[in-house]
Design goal:
Radius of gyration: 32 Å
Strand content: 15-25%
Mean pLDDT: 78
Number of helices: 18
CATH superfamily of one domain: UvrC, RNAse H endonuclease domain
Helix content: 40-55%
Distance between the termini: 22 Å
CATH architecture of one domain: 2-Layer Sandwich
Length: 677
């Protein structure tokens, strides 16, 4: 009956989708795919909605796209006036809904920059926020460490102030020569201007000039027998060389540009970004993720998302050429701009940054280099023009010369990174399988292909839970994981908890004819093993081997025990077999702890509501079912309680009590919903 109901649901969804496909317009826009629960699982854009959306339901696709299509039960679309609007809308929709199958930039932090503050006494800072405050910003740097290392060098070279507020007396920085002490001495504005100018020159690629000046000073100090000062200059030169060493790849101009490349394989995409500042490659960033749409389309979406989260722009962006048009002739295409005034979806861009060597903002009128760029009217030209109009920065899809070479280098690096990813996966899989096979030998078993591991979790006996994880051929099989709320044990009794959970698990295995494991792993030694064996052999008549993982005083896996009576297995701690057991123990511990925190959070929610006069168990359950969480109850209005037949007076009491609790204590918020077997 259940299968018939599911088939009927799929048929109804297919009929609904067929009707909507027939009504799709010949216009640019965005489409939203939904699953059976109405959740948006994918957002895409298209030059021609009719052709692009239909392509999902016609013909064959790779495994990942097939999985996406199999979950679609409904779709919506939004028509836009141009492809640029579709691109912007797509970015906004992805940010709003976080669809499961879209390319998501999960690290919401912006990149770090070095900032020279716009103050009477300026100072150097590392910041992730780019503001319109007339300060000078340099970057972005790929990580905070790279930015801090550069700032550390500049602090040694240029003694700007370090304190956030000026102290009454000079600090240690003055005594070590890294501050000119404006707190105690008058500093001429010309001195500040000179240092700011030198720092700007340094960060815009003028390290060689600074290095030459330091070499001259080092020579003079050595001639004057000031060897300590000469050593200090030498150390500064070495620090500069360490930074310049990363910048071997150069271009003849001094333009700041971001160079993008991508590669695809086995349903995965890797995007490489090369950061070129003042014509030198200073760093790079690599991102790998599964993609579900047309590859180049998802790549462009990645670029758009990247800059929508990062307000600082280079002078130029270089992109690779798109492949041949998709088979349907339209899928994933980017449209030419059409006339119209509808630009309300474009987010306001703030914090535009001076990143060029001349210190001027990116040109509003981006001009293509026709001898190097993609031909007009091509798909590449459509991509370039859409991004260029939105970002207000030059975008090139170069076809020859040096720019094409650096784009190819980015693409090659992406391919190497993706190949390396798959090689590592294959190597880990081989190691896991071999470790699993070898572990069987140590335990005197024919095979330990399927391993089930258990762990218990409680705090002083409260909210006791247990969890089970499954590893097959040395790899976690997460769909087989199980959670257990302990029903019969009162207090912190690990042995009886293990007895209950093992009984429940393998009674169900017998009753439903499920696959039995080759090995059971318990978190503990002789006592835990004895309890598990007693249940399996004496209550259920099962002869499944059991081993225990014993931890040391530092709570790290120390020994493997097995047998009846249990004995220590002399497994080397640096072996792949021991590493596999550690992974299993860490995973089941993580899973149990996470479940326990969820349950503890729910019990705290319940206790808060129970403390309110007039709220009994029935009303508490009704409140949680209606609102979903304590946070949503707290944010509700008095009117929101009326569907539950809760009067104005009681509603006000509930809100007052919960809001008072929020002010006095931080309570974990957990979405309501039962978990476990």
């Amino acid at each position: 009956m259940e299968r018939r109901g599911q088939a009927s649901e799929r048929d109804a969804a297919a009929e609904l989708i067929r009707g909507k496909l027939a009504l799709l317009p010949d216009a640019p826009g965005c489409y939203l795919m939904k699953n059976g629960e109405g959740t948006i699982i994918y957002v895409g854009k298209a030059k021609v909605l009719k052709n692009r959306v239909r392509s999902y339901f016609n013909g064959s696709h790779n495994g990942k796209t097939q999985r996406l299509v199999s979950e679609i039960r409904d779709l919506e679309y939004i028509v836009t006036g141009s492809n640029m609007e579709a691109l912007i809308l797509e970015c906004n929709l992805i940010k709003q809904y976080h669809p499961r199958y879209n390319v998501l930039l999960k690290d919401d932090k912006t990149f770090p920059y070095i900032k020279i503050t716009n103050e009477r006494h300026p100072k150097l800072e590392v910041t992730r926020r780019v503001l319109k405050d007339k300060a000078k910003y340099f970057g972005p740097y790929p990580n905070a460490f790279a930015a801090q290392q550069t700032k550390k060098l500049l602090d040694r070279l240029y003694p700007l102030r370090k304190c956030n507020t000026l102290p009454d007396k000079v600090c240690l920085y003055y005594h070590i020569g890294q501050c000119i002490a404006p707190c105690e001495y008058d500093v001429e504005q010309a001195d500040y201007d000179r240092m700011v100018q030198d720092i700007t020159k340094f960060l815009n690629g003028g390290q060689d000039e600074v290095k030459s000046e330091l070499q001259r000073k080092m020579g003079e100090a050595a001639e004057s027998l000031e060897f300590e000062r000469a050593k200090e200059y030498r150390d500064q030169i070495i620090a500069i060389e360490a930074i310049v060493e990363k910048q071997k790849i150069t271009m003849s101009d001094a333009v700041d540009r971001d160079v993008f490349g991508y590669a695809i394989d086995k349903g995965w995409m890797c995007v490489q970004i090369l950061y070129m500042r003042a014509g030198k490659m200073v760093e790079r960033r690599s991102s790998s993720f599964p993609y579900y749409g047309e590859a180049y389309d998802d790549f462009v979406t990645f670029v758009a998302q990247y800059y929508s989260d990062n307000p600082a722009l280079p002078r130029e962006i270089l992109l690779p050429e798109p492949p041949e048009e998709p088979a349907d002739g339209q899928a994933g295409e980017l449209a030419e701009e059409t006339e119209g005034d509808s630009v309300s979806m474009q987010p306001e861009r703030t914090g535009e940054v001076s990143l060029s060597s001349e210190g001027v903002a990116p040109d509003e009128q981006a001009v293509a280099e026709s001898d190097e760029d993609a031909p007009a009217g091509s798909r590449a030209d459509d991509v370039r023009e859409s991004l260029q109009k939105w970002l207000k920065v030059k975008v090139f899809v170069p076809r020859r010369a040096r720019k094409r070479e650096v784009v190819e280098m980015a693409c090659n690096n992406a391919k190497v990174a993706l190949d390396e990813k798959f090689r590592l996966i294959e190597r880990d899989e081989e190691r896991s399988v071999k470790a699993s096979e070898s572990l069987a030998g140590w335990l005197g078993l024919e095979s330990v292909r399927r391993i089930e591991a258990f762990d218990n979790s409680n705090i002083q006996g409260t909210n006791p839970v247990s969890a089970m994880v499954v590893f097959i051929d040395g790899k976690p099989e997460r769909k087989e994981y199980r959670k257990y709320k302990v029903r019969t044990v009162v207090g912190a009794d690990d042995y009886e908890t293990m007895r209950e959970v093992v009984r429940r698990r393998y009674e169900r295995v017998l009753k439903e004819g499920l696959e039995q494991p080759d090995l059971i792993v318990v978190d503990g030694g002789k006592g835990q093993i004895a309890v598990a064996l007693d249940v399996l052999r004496n209550e259920l008549g099962l002869q499944i081997p059991v081993c225990g993982l014993v931890k040391d005083a530092k709570h790290k896996t120390a020994q493997l025990m097995t047998g009846d009576p249990p004995e220590v297995v002399p497994l080397p701690r640096d072996s792949q077999e021991f590493y596999l057991l550690q992974r299993i123990q860490d995973e089941v511990h993580r899973f149990a702890i996470t479940f326990h925190r969820e349950q503890r959070g729910k019990s705290m929610v319940a206790s808060q509501l129970d403390a309110i006069p007039g709220i009994g168990e029935k009303r508490r359950k009704a409140l949680l079912k209606h609102f979903g969480s304590l946070k949503k109850i707290r944010e509700a209005s008095v009117e929101d309680f009326k569907p539950l037949s809760i009067g104005e007076k009681l509603a006000e009491q509930i809100l007052a009590a919960l809001r008072e609790d929020e002010e006095t204590a931080a309570v974990p918020e957990t979405a309501v919903g039962e978990a476990g077997e």
